[in-house]
Amino acid sequence: MVRVQHSGVAAVVTGALFLFAGASAARADSTITIATVNNGDMVVMQKLSSEFEKQHPDIHLRWVVLEENVLRQRVTTDIATKAGQFDILTIGNYEVPIWAKQGWLAAMDNLPASYDVDDLLKPVRAGLTYDGKLYGLPFYGESAMTYYRTDLFQKAGIKMPEAPTYDQIRGFADKITDKANKIYGMCLRGKPGWGENMAYVTSLVNAEGGQWFNMQWKPMIDSPPWHKAISFYDDILKADGPPGATSNGFNENLALFSSGHCGMWIDATVAGGMLYDKKQSTVADKVGFAPMPTGAFPGAPTWLWSWNLAIPASSKQQDAARTFVTWATSKEYIQLVAKTNGWVSVPPGTRVSTYENADYQKAAPFAGFVRKAIEVANPNGQTQRPRPYQGAQFVAIPEFQGIGTQVGQTIAGTLTGQTTVDQALKAAQSATERTMHQAGYPKN
Questions:
Q1: Whole-number mean pLDDT of the chain?
Q2: First vs last Cα of the chain: how many Å apart?
Q3: Left (φ > 0), alpha (ψ -120 to 50) or beta: where does 83 sit?
Q4: 3-class secondary-structure state, position 104
Q5: Residue range 110-124: average pLDDT?
Q6: Could you say which of 174, 228, 250, 347 has the lowest number of CB atoms within 10 Å?
């Protein structure tokens, strides 16, 4: 197995395509190319894939592991142009139904009975279903939660409520910030991108009673709820956040918290397994958790995301790809991770059987909390005022990928001092109005 570093992209290239003389086409070796994100659980999948290759010596794996924003750009370009560069894509519950509708993905039907589709958590499974068929299989699922340092709270004489508000969180951040010792009261995603800073920002806006569009598809960005949300975001990161916040996405904040530099962090529930793992986290015995904070509109859609493995319709290796995808998202794979790295490290948010497992419950004190958070994320629920779209921390329309990233870049400008909150929201409103008009909204 040879690891190749090229232009910042990690790839593992194993095997080559051998066609033995006299062998039938059905028995020919296959090489499948997998595009995935450089998140911790996927890195584990890559390492453990040698077990798959032992079981399937005729299937060889070529890995392309990318940073989140780059992955999205590469796989979107590849599938839209039908280039066929990849046989397996790591994509979210945003892309799956949209791309399935376009005919870009192969249906995940005829799965073996042992896969146990009914074991998949219903909210996660629903997000991967189009026209009654699954078009991706979940590798891990998540909602979001508030992580905090119990030792810092104790030292400051404060206690995290069972259901914190954003006003309370703002006060806590000031009390536990200790910049002289590089402890920052609040870490949040600042890296621009529709799935980076805007995943958190959209949830924050929902909580403050805002929304992206009204029922006529008019953008609602330059509005009081957005002003309140972005003013909080800008203010808390400037006062209590780490330096260079616009460089920090999920992975960067995970590293900051794990190494003791974050007092609080509001982000994906998937981080729990890593923060509580003593092999990965220096503060594993000092982590507390609470729900996402509430704002002016309690009960707003919060966050429901899954990273999934899907097969593009353009793949010429669909059978081999399906064999790998079912393996990597199976009960057996979860057992393999548990055996290798411990139960606290298994991919969360996908299977009922994981949450009912006594070993997982014992190893992961956050397990029941996370399952409930996923079940109440309410991605199809209403914002304070009626909305014409679905999605909790994204808008489930094709145009959102471009809109969210552009608005994310504009909002990141407030953190660096390039623009004020008022200026940023006016610019974002104008740019989004222009994009929606060019896209033909409102559509009949």
A1: 93
A2: 54
A3: alpha
A4: coil
A5: 96
A6: 174
Is the torsion defined by CA of 329, 10, 65, 61 positive or negative?
negative
Task: Specify the pTM.
Answer: 0.90
Q: What domains, with CATH codes, occur in the chain?
A: 2-142+305-362 (3.40.190.10), 144-303+385-438 (3.40.190.10)
Contact 348, 370 (CB under 8 A): yes
Look at residues 198, 186, 242 and name the one whose alpha carbon lies nearest to residue 68.
198
* pLDDT given for residue 12 in this prediction: 36
Distance, CA of 200 to chain centre: 11
**From residue 376, how far is each of 67, 180, 268, 291 by CA, in Å?**
29, 39, 14, 11
CB-based contacts of 418: which residues, under 8 Å, 6+ apart? none
Q: What is the Rg, in whole angstroms, of the alpha carbon atoms belonging to the chain?
A: 22
Percent helix, strand, coil in the chain, to 5, is: 45, 15, 40
Query: Stretch 423-428: mean pLDDT, rounded?
Result: 98
User: Tell me, what's the pLDDT at 7?
Assistant: 37
